[in-house]
Fold:
Amino acid sequence: MQKRKTPFDLHKHVTDQIVKAIEEGAGKVQMPWQRLGIGNAVPANAHTSAKYRGVNILSLWASTITNDFPRIIWATFRQWQKLDCQVRKGEKGSCVIFYKEFEVEPDQSKPNDDGLRRIARASWVFNASQVDGFELPDIPDMSPITRINNAEKLVQSTGADIRHGGDRAYYRSTQDLIQMPDERLFYGSNEAKRSEDYYAILLHELTHWTSPDKRLGRELGKRFGDDEYAMEELIAELGAAFLCAELGITPKPRDDHASDIANWLQVLKNDKKAVFTAAARASEAAAYIRKQNKSPS
Structure:
């Protein structure tokens, strides 16, 4: 008797690819849009154009999300002054850590001691949205994104409130809206890649859009506790990967899917099993979005 062929499970296939990429250490984290002279989705300093590093990235991401800042550009009060900008009265700064280096007498018992010591200091920075007089760098003279018909039809069928502007993509639950970066900030080797990158990000945010009680009422349980936000990001990355695969707009999960998920898994204390829990929630979200496309008008 011939064995029944196991049906191809697209979601499992995509998940397995991503897990493999995580285990093999996929490429650098990169989001598919960037500002000239500023960089990509990593918070940057307006005065020096340098990217913030280490814990400061997480701290400024958290502040950006908490305050719904549309920019990821920061500077100290004095640095804004040097740029002829003024922090508005009453604005509160966000804390970053820097290390001050000083010299002491080397410890003779330690052959490699050069006498240099570092001490952590706190500094306060303000977002570009908190100052007057700051103008963003010129946006590249690029055309709007070319729409991919099946992806656009799926997105539009949800009725989600989608807006464009700024240099950050996010879902704002308080207003139930999706904010996308200015389309001209998406770049790529060709127009097709620009479009694919645009929809990959939009589908990530659309997966977040399914989370409120009036839709899926996504509950992550006590297992994740304070890491609930990280788990939701993991779900959104997988949801985007699943929907991209289903729509056929990318031949395989992009490296930045795997890289971002690897970072969130690190936040989740290297709990690689979390990706499979997230995959189940992401499948539910993808099914909900597809269902909207099939609903009678």
